[in-house]
Amino acid sequence: MNAGQEPAFGLSFDPRALTDLLQASSDIRDLALSLLQDVVNANRFGTKLTGDLAGYRKLQVDSRAQWRIVYAVRPAPMTSTHRSEVHVVAVRPRAKNDVYDTVGARLGMARRPLSARTHAARSQSPQLISRASVPKPGPRTAPASSLLRPPHGAEQYHRAR
User: Fold this and answer.
1) The pLDDT of residue 35
2) Rounded to whole angstroms, what are the CA distances from 77 to 10, 18, 23, 89?
């Protein structure tokens, strides 16, 4: 922390996220703690997650973007000196969506969380859904019975000849 700067948020960890952090390599751990310090001091905010994980944010820990921190800003407990706290849910590798699968499991999601992009890719296009046939615009066709009768007044023309 910077000298004299009061943190804007409290900080809490899911116990499993703390284990994640302790099991990470020392360089990842140092980078993650530095990033979290910036978040707690309101100097940095992670990218908002979408889809099933809306309301959570992610931070890229390393320069190769192989590790992520997933956290939420939530109301702090009544005993805290802060109104809000940064609650870290996971500090894990991004490979094969490990971090997002882990977050989903820790949040009690029965299925794997989907991003908005994944959801859109898996959904069926509305143009492919079969619908009742809609008549094409064009000239109206007369009923067959009216085609067999001569036009009105044509009988008088033929009789007069």
Assistant:
1) 95
2) 9, 19, 27, 17
